[in-house]
C-alpha cells in the first residue's frame, strides 16, 4: 500500500533483530509463538499494518514528522506506534466483553422463556399460529406491502366524526415550531421534529379528532429564536370539511411549550433527563385545565380526558408513561431511534468503553426510559418490521416469540398469569404531498431537460437555492446525485464522497450535491459535525472534485422541495448511504418529486423500496457498490424512468391521511382507560359547598353592581351582554353562584347513597380545599425496619412550624407518605400522641394505598380512596409476580428455610406484595430483578424499603410520587403547591420524590441508612440522571432544626416574598389570540358602588390579557403574605402560582395558571361573563392580579376595596 510506505520502512527497521520483513500488500498471518519464542514486535507490526485505518495513521505521522530533531522524531514515532497497539488491544478487549455481555443476556432471555413456558404449561409454537392483527399478509399489491391485516378492526372513517377526541403528543428535545423549522441546526433538531409537527396537523384534520396538543420544551434563551419561548402556537384548525359551528373554540392542533429545566438555556437532549418530572407536572396541569375546558365545550360539563398520550423518543416516552399513570389513560410510543441499538453500534466501533459512552450520551438512562415506556405502552408504533425484530428485540421488555404466545392466549381468552407485551404496529410515516407538483406522463417519459437559459434569466422561474448550488458546478446540466442529511458520522457521507471521487465514469457523467444542514462557521459547529465536514472538504481537494461537488452553506426548509425538483429535472438520483437508517423520510420525499433512490440496505429503506420499487439498495460499507449503483441509475435511461414511474405510482401509501387512518384504527383497538370518578359525587358537592361557604364567610349584604357599557346592574338583573343566548347563559351562571351563596352550611346526607359516602367526612373531600400540602416522606427506620421515634419529634416540629402563622396554617394540609401499611402506621402515630386527623391524606405501602381521615364518625378512623385501586391497577398481575419472585429470590436447593425472603402477610395488600429480607447478602439489585421480570412479561414497580429489610412490589405506575399526582388529578391540589420533606437517603423510590415542580426540603442527619445501595447495578445510570443538581426548588436543613427554622426554610423555597401593598381597584380588557391575529372583545367594567365616585370619568383600563381573568382580593393592613390560589373553584378558575413586582408608583401581583389561557380564549365567543364577588382575604395587604407570562400588567386606578372578578 503506497499510503503505508512512510511507516513500513520504520517498522521493518525495528524488526532487524530477527523478525522477517512484512510484505507490502500481503502480511503473513500472526503466529504469537514461533519455536517456543513469543515475538511481540512482529505481533505489533501485524496489528498496525493490517488492523488500523491508514488515514488515521497518516494524520498522526504528519504531526510526528513536524519535529526537526531526528532523534526526538524517532522516539515520538515509537511512542505513537505503541499507543496504536494499545488501542488495538483495547478494542479487541471491548469486543470480547461485549460478546460476553450479549451471551449472558441471551441466556437470561432463554431462561425467562423457559420459566414462562413452565408457568403457562404451553409450548411457544402456539404463537406461530398467526394472528389477523399481528401477522403480515400476502404482498400481492403495493398497498399490502406495508399494511398489516386489520380486517377484524373497524377502519377509521367519517362515521367517527362525532367522537371529538383529544389527543396528546409529546416530543421534548430540539427546537419545535410550526413554520420555518431549523432542521439540521443540531443533532436534536432533525426529522423527528418535522414528523411530529406534521402528524399533529394531519391528526387534527381527521374526522372525530377535536384537538391535538403537541407538548415540547419552552426555551427562553438568547441562543435561539424568541418563538421557542411562546407558551402556545396554533398549527391548524380542525377538520377541513367541518362547518364553522362544529369546529369549536379550542379545536385544531397546537404546540404547547412547557417550561422545565433552566429557563434561560437550550439543553441538548442528554441533559434533559433530571428535569423530566418537572415537565410531567407542568404538562399535567395543562391537561387538567384543558380537559375541563373541553368538557364545558363538548363534554356536557364532564372532563374530556386525553384519548391517548403518545410519546416520541425515549425522553417523551418516559414522560408519557408517568402522565399515563397519573391520568389512567392509554399510552402510545414511537421510538424513532433506540438507545440499545446505538450502544451496540458504538461498542462495535471499539473507540469508547461502555462507561465513556454512558458518560457522553447518558445511554443507560435512555435505555431505562425506553424499557419503562415498553412497560407502560398499549401500542408501539414502528416504521419498519426490521425495527421490531432487530431493534426492539434487543430490549428486556419485548420478546417477539413471547409476544406471539401471549397474544394467542389472550385471543382465546386463556389466562396469561399477569404477563403483558405491548402490541407492535408498523405504520410508515406520512408526508404532505400538497406542494408536490408532478409532471405529466408525457414529460415524465420524455426528456426532462435541464434549467434553460430563459429559466435562469427569470428570477421568478428559478428559486434562489438553484444559484446557491449551481455556482459550485462547472456543468450544472449533468445529472445530480443528491444527498440530504446532517453532517453526522453515522450518515456516512465520507464514504459517498470517496466512492464518487474514485469512480471516474461517475464523475464524468454526474455532479454530486451535498446538503449538509446549515452552517456559518465550521469552528462553531459541534465536534462530530465539524469533523465530518472537514473530512468532506479534504476529500474534495484530494480527488480534485472542484466544479463537480456542491455543498451550499445555507438552505431553508421551504427550499427542500425545490432542491428535489432540480435533481429530478437533471435526471439525477437521491442517495441515503447511512450505516443504518431507522426509516428514511427523505427517501419518500425524493420519490414524491420523481427521484429514483440508492439507499442503505440496513433499516427502513428495505421496506420503503419494497413498497415503492424505485431504486437500488447497497451495503453502506462498500464504496464500490455505492459507485456502481449510482452509475447504473444515471447511465441507464430506461431503468431511471421505470424507477421514477414506480415511485409516483405507489407514493400514496405514505400520505398523511393514510397514516392517520391506520394510526387511529390501531389506537381505537387499545384498551381505553380514564379516571373512574365523577365530578358530581356527594363528596365533591360537599367539598365545593364548604369551600364556597368558607370563602364568603362574614360577607354580608352583597349587592355588587356590575357595570357594562357604563350602566350599573344588579347581579339579579339581566347583564345585557352579547346576544340573547349569551344573556341567558350569563344569568344561569350568576344564579347558580347566588344559589350556593344562600345555601345553608348543613348538608342533608342522602340516606340511599353509597355507604362509603354516608356521613362523608369533611376532610376527605376537603383535601381540594387545601392550598398547600406538606408531605412528610421521611424513611427513618432502625436495623429491624421499625420506624424510629425521632420521626414523631420531627412531625411535631413541622406541625408547630406551620402553626406559627395562622394564615398559612388555615390553607395548609398535611400528608404522610411511607412504606408502612396503614395499621402499622396508625399504631405508630398513636404511640406518639399524633392523631390521624392531623393529616389530610395518608399514602401507605409505598404508594399502593391512599387513605383519608374521617371526622364525622369515631376518632382515628380512616377511609380508603375508593377510586385509587382501579386507578393503579394497570397491568397488575399479583399471582404471576408472586410465583416468579419466589423463584428468582430463592435457591432451588435451599427450600424455604434457606431462602433469601419471606412473605410479609401483614404488610401486603391486594396491590402490594411485601417480603421480609432474611439474608441481605442474597438480595438482588432492583435493576437485576426488574430485568428478569421484564423478560418474563411481568410489569411492576419493585423497591427495597425500611432500611433494606423489606422488598415491596406494587403496580407498574404506582409510587409515592405518582400518588401525589393522583391527589392533583383527583382533588386539583396542584403539585406545585406541595412541599415534600425527605431525608438525605431513603427507600429505593426516594429519588422519584425529589424531582418535580414541588418544593423539596431535605433534612440532614435524620435518615442514617436507606436502601439505595440495592437500587442500581454497576454500569447503570446515576443519580444525577434523575435528580437535578442545581435547582431553587430544593433546600437543606438540619434534622435538629427548630419549628421557626423549618418555617423560615419553607418560606425561602416558596415563590412568594414579603410584600406591602395598598388596596386598589382594577379593570381589564380581554383579548383573544388566534394564529397571531388579535380580535378585541368589548371591555367589561367592574366598579364597587361605594368607590365609583372616586374615579374621574369612570374607570379606564390600559391592560389586556389573553382571555382570562384577572383576580384581586380585598385585604387590609400590612404583613408578609404567602402564595395562595383564590377560592373561585366554583366557576372553574384555578390559580397555579403568583409572583410579585413593585416600583415607586405601582404594585403588581401576577397570578399564573399553567395552560389556562387556552380555556379562557375558548370561551370568548360563547359569552363574556362578568361575575364579581367580594371576598374576605386570609391575608393582610392588598394584591393586584394578572395572568403572568406574556401578558402586560394592569394599571392601578384608585385605592379602595378590592374586587374579585372573573372574565372568561
Automatic annotation (TrEMBL):
Protein family according to the UniProt entry: Belongs to the glycosyltransferase 1 family.
NCBIfam families recorded: sucrsPsyn_pln
Sucrose synthase first GT-B domain: residues covered: 166-433
Entry's EC annotation: 2.4.1.14
Keyword Nucleus: no
Domain Glycosyl transferase family, chain residue ranges per copy: 475-647
Keywords, sorted A to Z: Glycosyltransferase, Transferase
Gene Ontology MF: a single term: sucrose-phosphate synthase activity
Gene3D superfamilies linked to this entry: 3.90.1070.10, Glycogen Phosphorylase B (3.40.50.2000), HAD superfamily/HAD-like (3.40.50.1000)
Catalytic activity line of the entry: beta-D-fructose 6-phosphate + UDP-alpha-D-glucose = sucrose 6(F)-phosphate + UDP + H(+)
Pfam families on file: Glycos_transf_1, GT-B_Sucrose_synth, S6PP
Biological role: Plays a role in photosynthetic sucrose synthesis by catalyzing the rate-limiting step of sucrose biosynthesis from UDP-glucose and fructose- 6-phosphate. Involved in the regulation of carbon partitioning in the leaves of plants. May regulate the synthesis of sucrose and therefore play a major role as a limiting factor in the export of photoassimilates out of the leaf. Plays a role for sucrose availability that is essential for plant growth and fiber elongation.
Boundaries of every Sucrose phosphatase-like domain copy: 837-994
InterPro entries: Glyco_trans_1, HAD_sf, SPP-like_dom, SPS, SPS_C, SPS_pln, Sucrose_synth_GT-B1
Quaternary assembly: Homodimer or homotetramer.
Name of the molecule in the record: sucrose-phosphate synthase
Primary enzyme class: transferase
CDD domains: GT4_sucrose_synthase, HAD_SPS
Species this protein is from: Abeliophyllum distichum
Pathway linked to the protein: Glycan biosynthesis; sucrose biosynthesis; sucrose from D-fructose 6-phosphate and UDP-alpha-D-glucose: step 1/2
Amino acid at each position: 500500500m503506497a499510503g503505508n510506505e512512510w511507516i513500513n520502512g520504520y517498522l521493518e527497521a525495528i524488526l532487524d533483530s530477527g523478525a522477517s520483513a512484512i510484505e507490502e500488500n500481503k502480511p503473513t498471518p500472526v503466529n504469537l509463538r514461533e519455536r517456543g519464542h513469543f515475538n511481540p514486535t512482529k505481533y505489533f507490526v501485524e496489528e498496525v499494518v493490517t488492523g488500523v485505518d491508514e488515514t488515521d495513521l497518516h494524520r498522526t505521522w504528519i504531526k510526528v514528522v513536524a519535529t526537526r530533531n531526528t532523534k526526538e522524531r524517532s522516539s515520538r514515532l515509537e511512542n505513537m506506534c505503541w499507543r496504536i497497539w494499545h488501542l488495538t488491544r483495547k478494542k479487541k478487549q471491548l469486543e470480547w466483553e461485549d460478546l460476553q455481555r450479549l451471551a449472558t443476556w441471551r441466556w437470561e432471555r432463554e431462561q425467562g422463556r423457559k420459566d414462562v413456558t413452565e408457568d403457562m404449561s404451553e409450548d411457544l409454537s402456539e404463537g406461530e399460529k398467526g394472528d389477523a392483527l399481528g401477522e403480515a399478509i400476502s404482498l400481492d399489491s403495493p398497498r399490502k406491502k406495508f399494511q398489516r391485516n386489520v380486517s377484524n378492526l373497524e377502519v377509521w372513517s367519517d362515521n367517527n366524526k362525532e367522537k371529538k377526541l383529544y389527543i396528546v403528543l409529546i416530543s421534548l428535545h430540539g427546537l419545535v415550531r410550526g413554520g420555518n423549522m431549523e432542521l439540521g441546526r443540531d443533532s436534536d433538531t432533525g426529522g423527528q421534529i418535522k414528523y411530529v409537527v406534521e402528524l399533529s396537523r394531519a391528526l387534527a384534520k381527521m374526522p372525530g379528532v377535536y384537538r391535538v396538543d403537541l407538548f415540547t420544551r419552552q426555551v427562553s434563551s438568547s441562543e435561539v429564536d424568541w418563538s421557542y419561548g411562546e407558551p402556545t402556537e396554533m398549527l391548524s384548525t380542525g377538520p377541513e370539511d367541518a362547518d364553522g359551528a362544529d369546529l369549536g373554540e379550542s379545536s385544531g392542533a397546537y404546540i404547547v411549550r412547557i417550561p422545565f429545566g433552566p429557563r434561560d438555556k437550550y439543553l441538548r437532549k442528554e441533559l434533559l433527563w433530571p428535569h423530566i418530572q418537572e415537565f410531567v407536572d407542568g404538562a399535567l396541569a395543562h391537561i387538567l385545565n384543558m380537559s375541563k375546558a373541553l368538557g364545558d365545550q363538548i363534554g356536557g360539563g364532564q372532563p374530556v380526558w386525553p384519548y391517548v398520550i403518545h410519546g416520541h423518543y425515549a425522553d417523551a416516552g418516559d414522560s408519557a408513561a408517568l402522565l399515563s399513570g397519573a391520568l389512567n389513560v392509554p399510552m402510545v410510543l414511537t421510538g424513532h431511534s433506540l438507545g440499545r441499538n446505538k450502544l451496540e453500534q458504538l461498542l462495535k466501533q471499539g473507540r469508547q468503553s461502555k462507561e465513556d459512552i454512558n458518560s457522553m450520551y447518558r445511554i443507560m438512562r435512555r435505555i431505562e426510559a425506553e424499557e419503562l415506556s415498553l412497560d407502560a405502552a398499549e401500542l408501539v408504533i414502528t416504521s419498519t418490521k426490521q425495527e421490531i425484530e432487530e431493534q426492539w428485540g434487543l430490549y428486556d421488555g419485548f420478546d417477539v416469540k413471547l409476544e406471539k404466545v401471549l397474544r394467542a392466549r389472550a385471543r382465546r381468552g386463556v389466562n396469561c398469569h399477569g404477563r403483558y407485551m405491548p402490541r407492535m404496529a408498523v405504520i410508515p410515516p406520512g408526508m404532505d404531498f400538497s406542494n408536490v407538483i408532478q409532471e405529466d406522463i408525457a414529460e415524465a417519459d420524455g426528456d426532462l431537460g435541464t434549467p434553460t437559459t430563459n429559466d435562469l434569466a427569470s428570477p421568478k422561474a428559478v428559486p434562489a437555492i438553484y444559484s446557491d448550488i449551481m455556482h459550485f458546478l462547472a456543468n450544472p446540466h449533468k445529472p445530480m446525485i443528491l444527498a440530504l442529511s446532517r453532517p453526522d458520522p453515522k450518515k456516512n457521507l465520507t464514504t459517498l464522497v470517496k466512492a464518487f471521487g474514485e469512480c471516474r465514469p461517475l464523475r464524468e457523467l454526474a455532479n454530486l450535491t451535498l446538503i449538509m444542514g446549515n452552517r456559518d462557521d465550521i469552528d462553531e459547529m459541534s465536534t462530530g459535525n465539524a469533523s465530518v465536514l472537514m473530512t468532506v472538504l479534504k476529500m474534495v481537494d484530494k480527488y480534485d472534485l472542484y466544479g463537480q461537488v456542491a455543498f451550499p452553506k445555507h438552505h431553508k426548509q421551504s427550499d427542500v422541495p425545490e432542491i428535489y425538483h432540480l435533481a429530478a429535472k437533471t435526471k439525477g438520483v437521491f442517495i441515503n448511504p447511512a450505516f443504518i437508517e431507522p426509516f428514511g423520510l427523505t427517501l419518500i420525499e425524493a420519490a414524491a418529486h420523481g427521484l429514483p433512490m440508492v439507499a442503505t440496505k440496513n433499516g427502513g429503506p428495505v421496506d420503503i423500496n419494497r413498497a415503492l420499487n424505485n431504486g437500488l439498495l447497497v451495503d453502506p460499507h462498500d464504496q464500490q457498490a455505492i459507485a456502481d449503483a449510482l452509475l447504473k441509475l444515471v447511465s441507464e435511461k430506461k431503468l431511471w424512468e421505470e424507477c421514477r414511474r414506480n415511485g409516483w405510482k405507489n407514493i400514496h401509501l405514505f400520505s398523511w391521511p393514510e397514516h392517520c387512518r391506520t394510526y387511529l384504527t390501531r389506537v381505537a383497538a387499545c384498551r381505553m382507560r380514564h379516571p373512574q370518578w365523577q365530578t358530581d359525587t356527594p363528596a365533591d358537592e360537599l367539598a365545593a359547598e364548604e369551600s364556597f361557604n368558607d370563602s364568603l364567610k362574614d360577607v354580608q349584604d352583597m349587592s355588587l353592581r356590575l357595570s357594562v357599557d357604563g350602566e350599573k346592574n344588579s347581579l339579579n338583573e339581566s347583564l345585557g351582554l352579547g346576544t340573547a343566548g349569551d344573556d341567558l347563559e350569563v344569568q344561569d351562571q350568576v344564579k347558580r353562584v347566588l344559589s350556593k351563596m344562600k345555601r345553608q352550611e348543613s348538608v342533608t346526607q342522602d340516606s340511599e347513597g353509597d355507604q362509603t359516602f354516608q356521613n362523608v367526612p369533611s376532610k376527605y373531600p376537603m383535601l381540594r380545599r387545601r392550598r398547600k400540602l406538606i408531605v412528610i416522606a421521611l424513611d427513618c427506620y432502625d436495623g429491624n425496619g421499625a420506624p424510629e421515634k425521632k420521626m414523631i419529634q420531627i412531625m411535631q416540629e413541622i406541625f408547630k412550624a406551620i402553626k406559627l402563622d395562622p394564615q398559612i396554617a388555615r390553607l395548609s394540609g398535611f400528608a404522610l407518605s411511607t412504606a408502612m401499611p396503614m395499621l402499622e402506621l396508625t399504631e405508630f402515630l398513636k404511640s406518639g400522641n399524633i392523631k390521624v386527623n392531623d393529616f389530610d391524606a395518608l399514602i401507605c405501602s409505598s404508594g399502593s394505598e391512599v387513605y383519608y381521615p374521617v371526622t364525622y364518625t369515631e376518632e382515628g378512623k380512616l377511609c380508603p380512596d375508593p377510586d385509587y385501586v382501579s386507578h393503579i391497577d394497570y397491568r397488575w398481575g399479583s399471582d404471576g409476580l408472586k410465583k416468579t419472585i419466589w423463584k428468582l429470590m430463592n435457591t432451588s436447593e435451599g427450600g424455604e428455610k434457606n431462602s433469601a425472603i419471606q412473605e410479609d402477610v401483614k404488610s401486603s395488600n391486594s396491590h402490594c406484595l411485601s417480603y421480609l429480607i432474611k439474608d441481605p447478602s442474597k438480595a438482588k439489585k432492583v435493576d437485576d430483578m426488574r430485568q428478569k421480570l421484564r423478560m418474563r412479561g411481568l410489569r411492576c414497580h419493585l423497591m427495597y424499603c425500611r432500611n433494606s429489610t423489606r422488598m415491596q412490589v406494587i403496580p407498574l405506575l404506582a409510587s409515592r410520587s405518582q400518588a401525589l399526582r393522583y391527589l392533583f388529578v383527583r382533588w386539583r391540589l396542584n403539585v406545585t403547591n406541595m412541599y415534600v420533606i425527605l431525608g438525605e437517603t431513603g427507600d429505593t423510590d426516594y429519588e422519584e420524590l425529589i424531582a418535580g415542580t414541588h418544593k423539596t426540603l431535605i433534612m440532614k442527619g435524620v435518615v442514617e441508612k436507606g436502601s439505595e445501595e440495592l437500587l442500581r447495578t454497576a454500569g447503570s445510570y446515576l443519580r444525577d440522571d434523575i435528580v437535578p443538581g442545581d435547582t431553587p426548588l430544593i433546600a437543606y436543613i438540619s434534622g435538629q432544626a427548630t419549628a421557626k427554622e423549618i418555617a423560615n426554610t419553607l418560606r425561602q423555597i416558596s415563590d412568594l416574598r414579603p410584600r406591602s401593598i395598598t388596596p386598589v381597584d382594577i379593570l381589564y380588557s380581554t383579548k383573544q389570540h388566534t394564529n397571531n391575529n388579535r380580535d378585541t372583545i368589548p371591555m367589561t367594567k367592574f366598579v364597587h358602588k361605594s368607590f365609583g365616585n372616586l374615579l374621574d370619568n369612570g374607570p379606564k383600563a390600559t391592560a389586556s390579557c389573553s382571555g382570562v381573568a384577572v383576580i384581586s382580593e380585598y385585604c387590609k393592613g400590612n404583613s408578609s403574605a404567602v402564595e395562595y390560589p383564590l377560592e373561585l373553584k366554583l366557576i372553574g378558575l384555578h390559580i397555579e402560582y403568583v409572583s410579585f413586582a413593585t416600583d415607586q408608583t405601582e404594585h403588581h401581583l401576577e397570578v399564573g395558571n399553567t395552560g389556562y389561557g387556552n380555556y379562557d380564549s375558548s370561551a370568548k365567543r360563547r359569552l363574556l361573563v362578568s361575575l364579581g364577588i367580594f371576598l374576605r382575604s386570609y391575608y393582610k395587604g392588598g394584591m393586584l392580579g394578572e395572568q403572568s407570562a406574556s401578558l402586560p400588567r394592569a394599571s392601578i386606578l384608585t385605592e379602595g376595596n378590592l374586587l374579585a372578578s372573573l372574565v372568561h
